[in-house]
Amino acid sequence: MGETLDQILQPGRCHTMKVDLRLYALVDPEHTGGHDIAALAAAVVKGGATLVQLRDKKGSTREMIARARAIHAALKGTGVPLLINDRVDVALAAGVEGVHIGWDDMAADDARRLLGKGAIIGLSINSAERARTAPIELLDYVCIGGVFATTSKDNPNPPQGVAGVCAFADIIRPRAPKGFPVGAIAGITAANAGEVIAGGLDGVAVITALSLKPDPEAAARELRGIVDRSLKVGAGAPA
Ligand SMILES: Cc1ncc(COP(=O)(O)OP(=O)(O)O)c(N)n1
Ligand SMILES: Cc1nc(C(=O)O)sc1CCOP(=O)(O)O
Ligand SMILES: [Mg+2]
């Protein structure tokens, strides 16, 4: 038996490391724009992505593990963590840095028990109720869904707009430790990322804005520049 949650969450033994959510690239075999998925992940990281997720909704378990291993190998030495969407077992098998879970996926306490205190665990939030009840103490970040319309997800959340997403972030922040990262996802592009960051989010998570570009590295460089400049403005530094 591994450690209990109480042991994992003992004061001074907290799992939380600072996750850099500024440019979170989701790579998805159904939305690669014809790029090899491992080469795509490496390219966006070269361009400035700070976190990568393998979102593989249709692959077999073996395919997912093989993709995860290939992407993890391509990111070796970059220091950028790889997370697996939905699947704690795939993350464990491939030896990656963590998982992203939604409210229909494995519960955060089960994921934390299985993955241990050193893993990164992120959670999707898409309502005020979820912002109020998310188990922040078990998490390394949250990502608020449905900011704009998206074609990359089946049954997408209704678009909340920047104001809606920021209202959820305002519920989460007082419940979370200082510096706890809160990002946003859905339909974010170079044209609207600045607005999202200016609203008070710590980063943007994207598929299309990087994967479907002919030059994903250049697209990542542009988007990361927008995020960094908007974060500086928010912090009161010169643009
Ligand atoms: C960073 C990030 N945010 C949100 C999601 C969506 O998670 P979920 O609602 O569980 O939907 P699926 O992606 O699993 O279809 C995500 N994957 N990543
Ligand atoms: C995986 C995912 N989750 C979402 C949510 O709203 O929770 S939107 C989404 C897909 C995001 O892709 P794109 O950047 O192409 O819009
Ligand atoms: Mg999910």
TrEMBL record:
Sequence positions that bind Mg(2+): 86, 105
One GO term (biological process): thiamine biosynthetic process
Catalytic activity, as annotated: 2-[(2R,5Z)-2-carboxy-4-methylthiazol-5(2H)-ylidene]ethyl phosphate + 4-amino-2-methyl-5-(diphosphooxymethyl)pyrimidine + 2 H(+) = thiamine phosphate + CO2 + diphosphate; 2-(2-carboxy-4-methylthiazol-5-yl)ethyl phosphate + 4-amino-2-methyl-5-(diphosphooxymethyl)pyrimidine + 2 H(+) = thiamine phosphate + CO2 + diphosphate; 4-methyl-5-(2-phosphooxyethyl)-thiazole + 4-amino-2-methyl-5-(diphosphooxymethyl)pyrimidine + H(+) = thiamine phosphate + diphosphate
Class of this enzyme: transferase
One GO molecular-function entry: magnesium ion binding
Positions of 2-[(2R,5Z)-2-carboxy-4-methylthiazol-5(2H)-ylidene]ethyl phosphate binding: 150-152, 187, 207-208
Cofactor(s) the record lists: Mg(2+)
Family of the protein in this entry: Belongs to the thiamine-phosphate synthase family.
Function: Condenses 4-methyl-5-(beta-hydroxyethyl)thiazole monophosphate (THZ-P) and 2-methyl-4-amino-5-hydroxymethyl pyrimidine pyrophosphate (HMP-PP) to form thiamine monophosphate (TMP).
Protein name: Thiamine-phosphate synthase
Gene: thiE_1
